[in-house]
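Response to reviewer comment R2.3. The reviewers asked that we include at least one raw input/output pair. We reproduce the pair for Ig-like domain-containing protein here without editing.
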Amino acid sequence: MLVGNLRTDDITAYTGDSVLLPCSCTDPHAKPESFIWQKYNTRRQTWDMITSESEQYSNRVQMGTAHSPGNLSLLISHLTEEDEGDYRCYMNQWNYKDIRLAIK
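Raw output as returned:
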């Protein structure tokens, strides 16, 4: 289970800064089999997967931490206006957390 499951958190950050989008398991020692981060694409109306290989996030994202497997948080650095939007930490159909990120 995720902390804040099925709830939307609102976060505001500033261009050029870094932001941590929080996502963690209710059991900090849990080792989820898999999880992904997605961002809602308003043009295509689809959820796009976020990876460090994707062009928009190249060398700007870090997911989770090795020393705390239940911490699935997403760190985005060097924020741009394009980073604004809806994000989802997704484990499965019934277990996800939404975050709305505003950039100023």
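Strands lie at 8-13, 19-21, 36-41, 46-49, 61-63, 74-76, 85-92, 95-103. Residues 18 and 53 are 18 Å apart (CA to CA). Further pairs are available on request from the corresponding author.
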